[in-house]
Amino acid sequence: MITTETRESELASGGIAAVESVTAIAEVTTMGAIVQEKYGTAEVLELRDIDKPDIGDHDVQVRVRAAAVNPADWAPVRGTDVAGEVEAVGASVTRFQPGDEVFGWSGRLGGAFAEYASVTEDALVHKPANLTFEQAAAVPMAATVALLAVRDHGRVRAGQKVLVNGASGGIGTFAVQIAKSLGAEVTGVCSTSNVDLVRSIGADHVIDYTKEDFTRTGQRYDFILDNVSNRSLSDLRRALTPKGTLVPNGGGFDHRWVAGGGRLIRAKLSFAFGSRSVRTFIASPKQEILVALKELIETGKVTPIIDRTYRLSETRQAIDHVGGGHARGKVVITVIKAVTS
Ligand SMILES: NC(=O)c1ccc[n+]([C@@H]2O[C@H](COP(=O)([O-])OP(=O)(O)OC[C@H]3O[C@@H](n4cnc5c(N)ncnc54)[C@H](OP(=O)(O)O)[C@@H]3O)[C@@H](O)[C@H]2O)c1
After folding, report:
1. d(CA 195, CA 203)
2. Residues in the ligand 1 pocket, defined by CB under 6 Å
3. At the topology level of CATH, where does 2-138+305-334 sit?
4. Which parts of 138-169 fold into alpha helices (H)?
């Protein structure tokens, strides 16, 4: 079979973006992928040609169409969120077949910033029909964190007052919509330029943090999801109702995964003495969560918000943009589709 692919091809050639036609005979065994050979920030990333990933019996090889960027992509493991088409399946895979459109959590070690990704069957779900690949790639990690925080840890119910600090970011834009879908009265906190965005995704009230400190308005909330960590624990405590719950999800924007251990321990201790509670967690791939998110998306209750898309060759810039701490929704890498003749 002769396959003609149009693909980005600055591979190992100094990083100059160019699109060229590549004619390959028989099966293509290599792929373009973002790799790093030393530890460091996004500057160490390079687009290279490497072998396509192997798949085990329970794995699915996904032809990546889009991958999203998370703050965690500053860490050595990069590229968790993936959306694409199933290329091949392992011997024991039962739920997917070649050609299926899917989204989920890529591999045990990241790897979605590539033309192909190996994904365990349990971390994938069929793509919602009403989403593009870019929108679907935006969902897995950020929306999983939002759903776990709001629904499972916050146990948010209809009529409760919910506040989302960092409401315009990747997790925040999902959390606002999920809390609204549960019937809560939602307040989003963001900067001036994002007030309209946060209102447009359903927030009942929006606090512009450049003008007002949400911990000093006198308003109390049943649940606070803090994606930013820029307020003291005593301030956050004051903004909670006597039985309120805090999820201190953010680690600030110094590229740490979640809030530093010291802050978490202090939070646990200071909240343990009162009736308020503090809940922390680290999200991991769960198929049932992806199924729940797919349902929220297909029923129109949740729509992924895309800040902007980058090409695979621009992954460094995409990670830098997210690392700046002011993404508007999700930042997504578009991986150019192969054209078969
Ligand atoms: N628990 C887990 O398993 C887990 C998983 C993934 C991520 N996380 C953590 O969750 C946090 C948020 O992630 P994300 O993906 O939502 O980040 P993100 O997409 O980079 O969002 C950042 C948002 O924070 C807002 N922000 C910045 N400074 C602010 C301030 N002073 N006050 C209020 N908002 C402010 C920004 O809004 P403006 O532009 O309007 O300022 C932006 O919308 C990160 O710390 C990340 O490490 C945790």
Report:
1. 10
2. 70-72, 141-142, 145, 165-166, 168-172, 189-191, 194, 209, 227-228, 230, 249-251, 257-258, 281-283, 322, 325-327
3. Quinone Oxidoreductase; Chain A, domain 1 (3.90.180)
4. 140-147
**Atom 15 of ligand 1, residue of closest alpha carbon:** 170
Site of tokens 């979640």: 258
**Which residue, judged by its Cα, is nearest atom 1 of ligand 1?**
282
Which residue has 């590539």 as its token pair? 114
Q: What is the pLDDT of residue 272?
A: 60
Q: Which CATH architecture has domain 142-278?
A: 3-Layer(aba) Sandwich (3.40)
Residue 251 is predicted with a pLDDT of 63
CA 330–ligand 1 middle distance (angstroms) = 11
CA distance 58 to 258: 30
SS3 content of the chain, % helix, strand, coil (to 5): 30, 30, 40
Mutation to probe ligand 1, out of 70, 165, 178, 228 (largest number of atoms < 8 A from CB): 228
Instruction: Tell me what the mean pLDDT of segment 207-217 comes to.
Output: 97
| Domain range summary for the chain, segments of one domain joined by + | 2-138+305-334, 142-278
Tell me if 65 sits within 8 A of 84, measured CB to CB: yes
Is the entire prediction scored with pTM above 0.85? Answer: yes
Atom of ligand 1 nearest to the CA of 257: 47
Please give the helix or strand (H or E) that residue 179 lies within, else none.
Answer: helix 170-181
Residue 339 has a pLDDT of 45
pLDDT at residue 71, as a whole number: 84
Give the span between the Cα atoms of 103 and 281, in whole angstroms. Answer: 23
Mutation test residue for ligand 1: of 163, 197, 201, 249, the one with most atoms within 8 Å of CB:
249
DSSP letters, 193-249, are GGHHHHHHTT-SEEEETTT--GGGSS--EEEEEESS--S-HHHHHHTEEEEEEEEE-
User: Is the separation of the CB atoms in 227 and 249 below 8 Å?
Assistant: yes
Radius of gyration of the chain (CA): 21
